[in-house]
């Protein structure tokens, strides 16, 4: 008899809620990770750095459990099929796992829960990837918040009252004794290694302490680059939020944005395809493919936009300030559907998070929760003036700046600004 502890986006052993409770409550715990074919099949880039990252982290977990006398089951396939096989192989007592709020994950978990229920096997789920999950922070009428500020206020009040604490050391004695179980390789899953480097999972206290002063300047090391670690749970959000609450509230506020967008997505799964504000679905996007290509490749002739896209293509990261600029440029200057930009980011960003990416894109396009009027169009030059005055960031990514080989602007700023405002205005009058 064994109990499975199913890891998904919580690839760590410290302060992992499902793991902690499984080891506290069950005698024979066998950790499990499934490389989900449903997700991997959608990845076009076969050297996607995220797959390599997950494989590496799962490998580290497995070695860790082996040092403690256990091991880890690593499977590749569609989760329902993998579970059907596991039910044949093992006498499963229960399955412990941390909750995931994305539409696909909820559907997948619903399917697994139903499958287990046929055999009377409990499927126990825990809160782990957030401080407050969708539904915990509601307004006075018990409804979800549609704007950020009151949500964040309520979140902070509750955070202060709750006194969140990380969990203590798990009871490793309850790991199921096992000889090392088989591993899996990238090539067996049809993937190749990636040259992209992943930043470390260390919460740099200096960066956090000075976050509010430095976070807007892409040439500075002013943000923590923990996005990928929050995405895959290689850092505990509870530990990070505690550090942030002691060092810098602006940083904590960013973690609240993350939970705000997760809540918005959970309550409004339609935002994956549609504008949060339905009237904005009437915008007649120009969707010029050549312009989109120039944007993707960092060849628009707008240095700050091009620097950002080149940074993204080369490293899988883009600074938040620049994400806002390139997203505004695509949707407003070029009038290209925000969903095109969103999909491109989803392919490239190491820290891709459906909820935050969708929220960020809808914010930039003016279609989202933000009350910001649509006629506010970012001016790439004034953004450069404010946030990269000495062109340090831009020159890093565009060494040919100022030479003939750098492209001419693909659109005139003033013309594009007026066109965007007129187009939005007309669409909203319908
Ligand atoms: P830091 O500035 O150090 O912040 C720490 C953490 O707080 C981040 O890692 C992230 O988890 C969270 N956070 C910070 N800002 C935001 C925000 N505005 N919204 C939600 N969470 C935030 N963030 C993602 O995690 N995944 C995405 O796919 C994503 N797509 C975006 C798309 C657009 C168009 C825009 C404008 C923003 C997007 N963001 C996304 C938000 C933000 O840009 C990144 O979280 C941030 O740049 C990641 O860098 P960092 O880890 O150094 O962040």
Protein model, in words:
With 430 residues, the chain is of the alpha/beta class. It has three domains: 2-129, Rossmann fold; 130-165 and 204-267, Serine Threonine Protein Phosphatase 5, Tetratricopeptide repeat, CATH 1.25.40.80; 272-425, Orthogonal Bundle (DNA Cyclobutane Dipyrimidine Photolyase, subunit A, domain 3). It is built from 19 helices and five strands. It has helices spanning 17-25, 37-40, 49-67, 79-89, 103-117, 148-162, 205-209, 211-214, 227-232, 237-247, 249-267, 289-297, 303-315, 320-333, 338-348, 354-365, 380-387, 392-397, 413-429; strands at 2-7, 29-36, 73-77, 92-98, 123-126. Strands 3-2-1-4-5 form a five-stranded parallel β-sheet, with helices on both faces. Strand 4, helix 5 (103-117) and strand 5 (123-126) form a beta-alpha-beta unit. Helix 14 (320-333) packs across helix 16. The protein is globular. The protein starts with a strand and ends with a helix. The mean pLDDT is 97. Bound molecules: flavin-adenine dinucleotide. Residues 215, 223-227, 230, 254-255, 257-258, 261, 320, 323-324, 327, 345, 349, 351-353, 356-357, 360-361, 364 line the site of flavin-adenine dinucleotide (FAD). GO terms for molecular function: deoxyribodipyrimidine photo-lyase activity. It comes from Algoriphagus aquatilis. Its cofactor is (6R)-5,10-methylene-5,6,7,8-tetrahydrofolate; FAD.
């Amino acid at each position: 008899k064994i109990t499975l502890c199913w890891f998904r986006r919580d690839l760590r052993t410290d302060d992992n809620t499902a793991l902690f409770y499984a080891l506290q409550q069950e005698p024979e715990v066998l950790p499990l990770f499934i490389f989900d074919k449903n997700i991997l099949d959608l990845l076009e880039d076969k050297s996607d750095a995220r797959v390599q990252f997950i494989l590496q982290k799962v490998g580290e977990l497995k070695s860790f459990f082996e040092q403690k006398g256990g091991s880890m089951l690593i499977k590749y396939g569609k989760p329902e099929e993998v579970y059907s096989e596991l039910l044949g192989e093992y006498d499963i007592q229960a399955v412990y796992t941390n909750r995931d709020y994305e539409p696909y994950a909820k559907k997948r978990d619903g399917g697994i829960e139903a499958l287990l229920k046929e055999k009377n096997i409990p499927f126990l789920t825990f809160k782990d990837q957030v401080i407050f999950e969708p539904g915990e922070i509601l307004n006075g009428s018990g409804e979800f918040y549609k704007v950020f500020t009151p949500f964040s206020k309520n979140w902070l009040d509750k955070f202060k009252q709750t006194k969140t604490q990380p969990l203590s050391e798990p009871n490793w004695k309850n790991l199921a004794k096992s000889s090392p179980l088989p591993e899996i390789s990238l090539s067996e899953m049809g993937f190749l290694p990636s040259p992209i480097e992943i930043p470390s999972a260390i919460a740099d206290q200096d960066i956090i302490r000075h976050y509010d002063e430095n976070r807007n300047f892409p040439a500075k090391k002013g943000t923590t680059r923990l996005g990928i670690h929050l995405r895959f749970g290689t850092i505990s959000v509870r530990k990070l939020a505690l550090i942030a609450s002691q060092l810098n509230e602006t940083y904590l506020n960013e973690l609240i944005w993350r939970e705000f967008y997760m809540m918005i997505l959970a309550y409004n799964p339609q935002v994956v395809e549609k504008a949060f504000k339905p009237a904005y679905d009437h915008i007649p996007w120009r969707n010029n493919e050549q312009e989109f290509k120039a944007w993707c490749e960092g060849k628009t002739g707008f240095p700050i936009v091009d620097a950002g896209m080149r940074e993204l293509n080369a490293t899988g990261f883009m600074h938040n300030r620049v994400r806002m600029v390139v997203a505004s440029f695509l949707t407003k200057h070029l009038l290209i559907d925000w969903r095109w930009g969103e999909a491109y980011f989803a392919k490239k960003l190491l820290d891709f998070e459906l909820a935050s990416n969708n929220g960020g894109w809808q914010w930039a396009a003016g279609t989202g929760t933000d009350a910001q009027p649509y006629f506010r169009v970012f001016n790439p030059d004034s953004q450069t003036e404010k946030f990269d005055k000495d062109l340090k960031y831009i020159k890093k990514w565009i060494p040919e700046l100022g030479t003939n080989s750098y492209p001419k602007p693909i659109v005139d700023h003033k013309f594009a600004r007026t066109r965007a405002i007129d187009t939005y205005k007309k669409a909203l009058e319908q």
